């Protein structure tokens, strides 16, 4: 333990793996460590304290977590290394063997500030040790760039899909009161943040507002925020939410990430998904019809247990029909203690072949969606600078690299001159005229 009298600013490296919820929670932790006067550094630049917030959604994510711990210990032999997150819930002993000094699982995340502060000889008081009922909501540490900020409104999952371990690692669903979430968003807007990204493990199930997630989005839009939704489940998305997005687009971003997983109704039912392909198809078609400039992104798992070649072809056919702008394809890997792990498995080489076919189709569909943007004028929120160019995103969530004048946080028009993969390249032509943001009084 470092003595209090000798305490100087602590060099802190934070590594966040996995979902946006983890990012929110990492930011919250930094906000609760202000007593350390943290100086944030890269892992390779020498740290006194390393915090690794892990993921366990796939076996690849687990391997990444182990690799980060080994890397942190090699780069910082004397540092105090703290590991938290979903993999810390799943395999705490293994993480300790790899070099972690403290392993704090999700169920005990409220203890993180105390564990860290006490190591450096500082007391933890109630202000730095919030209740664990809804960790990562309201505490504010490092904003990514003072342009976009994540606001966590939901945690946990009750769905119990056959292939997924997340409900075991994140617990039952909890929902943040809308007044609390709106108060945080208001503070962020007053600080100059331009875009609020709502996050949750199962965001669409949010019940902290009388009208659910649609009601919360509507209130944020009326407050003057640009609003983006992180991944949302299809069965939790309906006409009411789509109409809110349509009413306020592009301020409410016309993009949804709706996880499909498979185009086979039999497999959707077997895996415990709560929708079928007819519902998913009609939902996406409704979004295209209602929302100007709507963009769909999705997840697909190749080689789910018992999947036949015909069912794999059904997935490809549905993707062709619905034209997502981006598809995240995963090769199924059995997860211990999930129902799917006990089912007959597709041979691994066949799973990999199907993944490659999905990726090839995804690239084809992405090209079809992005090519018409060449030569067009797109709206872009300027977020940061990279090697002399502005970096930002369009409302429909394409990354943009742009030359020209501007300032961080401005919304501008960019003329697209080149397309590189999923990225648009161009030049700033003009600042977009927008109404002054009026912050409404809180109810």
Structure write-up:
With 443 residues, the chain is an alpha/beta fold. α8 packs parallel to α9. The longest helix has 23 residues. The N and C termini lie far apart (47 Å).
The side-by-side strand order for the widest beta sheet comes to 2-1-3-4-5
The residue-averaged pLDDT reads 89
Order of helices and strands: EHEEHEHHEHEHEHEHEHEHHEHEHEEEEE
Helicity, in percent? 25-40%
- Major beta sheet summary: 5 strands, parallel
Global shape: globular
- Unreliable segments of 5+ consecutive residues: 1-6, 438-443
Number of helices: 13
- Rg calc: 22 Å
Number of β-strand runs: 17
Separation, N- and C-terminal Cα atoms: 47 Å
Helix vs. strand class: alpha/beta
Taken as a percent bin, the fraction of beta residues is 15-25%
In a few lines, what is going on in this structure?
By secondary structure, the chain is α/β, with parallel strands linked by helices.
Give me the secondary-structure topology.
Layout: E1 11-16, H1 20-31, E2 39-40, E3 49-54, H2 59-75, E4 80-85, H3 86-90, H4 92-98, E5 102-105, H5 112-119, E6 148-155, H6 166-170, E7 174-175, H7 178-190, E8 195-200, H8 212-223, E9 226-229, H9 239-248, E10 255-257, H10 265-270, H11 277-290, E11 295-302, H12 309-322, E12 326-331, H13 348-370, E13 377-386, E14 389-393, E15 399-403, E16 411-420, E17 423-431
Helix pairs in contact: 7-8, 8-9, 9-11, 12-13
């Amino acid at each position: 333990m470092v003595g209090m009298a000798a305490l100087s600013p602590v060099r802190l490296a934070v590594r966040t793996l996995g979902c946006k919820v983890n990012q929110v929670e990492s930011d919250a932790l930094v906000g609760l460590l202000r007593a350390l006067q943290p100086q944030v550094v890269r892992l390779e630049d020498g740290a006194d304290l390393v915090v690794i917030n892990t993921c366990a959604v796939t076996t690849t994510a687990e391997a990444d977590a182990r690799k980060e711990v080994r890397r942190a210990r090699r780069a910082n032999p004397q540092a105090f290394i703290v590991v938290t997150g979903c993999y810390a819930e799943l395999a705490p002993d293994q993480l300790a063997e790899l070099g972690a000094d403290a392993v704090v699982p999700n169920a005990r995340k409220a203890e993180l500030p105390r564990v860290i502060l006490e190591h450096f000889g500082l007391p933890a008081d109630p202000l730095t040790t919030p209740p664990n009922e809804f960790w990562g909501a309201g505490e504010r540490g490092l904003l990514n760039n003072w342009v976009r900020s994540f606001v966590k409104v939901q945690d946990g999952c009750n769905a119990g899909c056959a292939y997924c371990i997340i409900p075991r690692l994140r617990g039952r669903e909890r929902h943040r009161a809308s007044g609390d979430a709106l108060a945080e968003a208001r503070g962020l807007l007053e600080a100059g943040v331009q875009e609020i990204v709502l996050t949750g493990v199962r965001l669409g199930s949010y019940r902290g507002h009388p009208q659910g997630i649609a009601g919360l989005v509507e209130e944020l839009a009326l407050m003057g925020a640009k609003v983006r939704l992180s991944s949302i489940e299809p069965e939790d998305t309906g006409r009411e939410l789509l109409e809110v997005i349509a009413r306020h687009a592009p301020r409410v971003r016309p993009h949804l990430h709706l996880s499909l997983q498979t185009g086979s109704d039999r497999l959707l039912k077997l895996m415990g998904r709560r929708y079928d392909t007819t519902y998913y198809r009609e939902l996406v078609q409704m979004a295209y019809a209602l929302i100007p400039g709507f963009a769909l992104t999705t997840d697909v798992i190749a080689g789910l247990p018992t999947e036949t070649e015909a069912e794999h072809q059904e997935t490809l056919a549905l993707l062709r029909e619905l034209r997502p702008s981006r598809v995240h394809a995963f090769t199924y890997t059995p997860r211990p203690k999930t129902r799917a792990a006990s089912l007959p498995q597709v041979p691994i080489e066949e799973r990999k072949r199907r993944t490659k076919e999905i990726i090839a189709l995804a690239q084809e569909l992405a090209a079809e969606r992005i090519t018409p943007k060449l030569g067009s004028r797109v709206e872009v929120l300027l977020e940061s600078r990279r090697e002399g160019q502005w970096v930002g995103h369009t409302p429909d969530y394409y990354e943009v690299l742009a030359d020209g004048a501007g300032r961080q946080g401005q919304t501008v028009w960019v003329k697209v001159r080149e397309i590189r993969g999923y990225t648009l390249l161009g030049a700033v032509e003009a600042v977009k005229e927008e109404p002054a943001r009026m912050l409404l009084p809180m109810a």
